[in-house]
Specification:
Number of strands: 8
Number of helices: 6
Structural class: alpha+beta
Largest sheet: 6 strands, antiparallel
Number of domains: 2
Helix content: 40-55%
Keywords: Membrane, Transmembrane, Transmembrane helix
Radius of gyration: 29 Å
Amino acid sequence: MGPTTLITGLCYYFGVVSKSAYFAYFSLDDDAFGFSTADYVRDSVAVLYPVLVVLLAATCAGFWILLYGRRRLRLGRQSGRAGWAGIAAGGALIALAVWGVVAPVIPLPRGIAVPVLTAVMIPVALGLGAVLIAAGTEVLVVLRSRSSPRLTTAAERSTWLFAGAALVLALFWLTNIYANDYGRDHAEAAASELWDKESVVVLDTADPLFAPSNLLQESELSPQPGQRFRYRYECLRTVAVRPDRWVLVPARWQETYGYALIVRIDESSRVIVTRRSDLPDMNVPGGWHGEWPCPEVAPPPS
């Protein structure tokens, strides 16, 4: 597996995690929309960019700390206690992380269960433990080479390999959590902006949708020669647009009642998109009398 394949695979995976969390907030499955690999990879850029910036900054800081620490160890008179203490603390943290996975809760009397670690703290403990083990081993190696230089032993190489694998696993785990939270947070932000969104959607259909009257405005179209559409639905907003289908939700969409429409673009429906830049100005609290499903069908505030 080449570096390009590995990078593309990681981008694809985290793009799937983020996009799945985004649509899951709207009670939708992203598999229904037929997203391509390029779609997922492109969406992963926004997810991985802050992660890579933090990782590069941490790597740079770790590099300078390593150089400074080696210099101090070679010039000073430190003993190996600090190294063994780091290895012991790192092993304890890794053991705690493993315990949090194998037995995530501690049962207490009266049916109370206390979590060992939160979902975020498990990879944090794993990664921090790996760093401490690697740092402790490095301290011991530098101190030993100062007194009697020799090649690194197989046990030391195995310890570094174990610490590196644990650190990679922790970073992957944390990035997965971040990608999931990123998708959900952006879905919440998008849902909060549905009411004031300037791009409003009108859907014409040949058959009634039996949509909730408190969320959509339904009206019958006047019969016209050659007119196959008989019903018009207003107060819709776009969540996703695909070549063969649109995903629409009401302007008053709420998580407690996640109504959504997946509309196929064919002869049975017609989608009309209009930009209404005046709608945010109409959203004045207390300016309307009664409940309206969206600002475009409500009378202007007096």
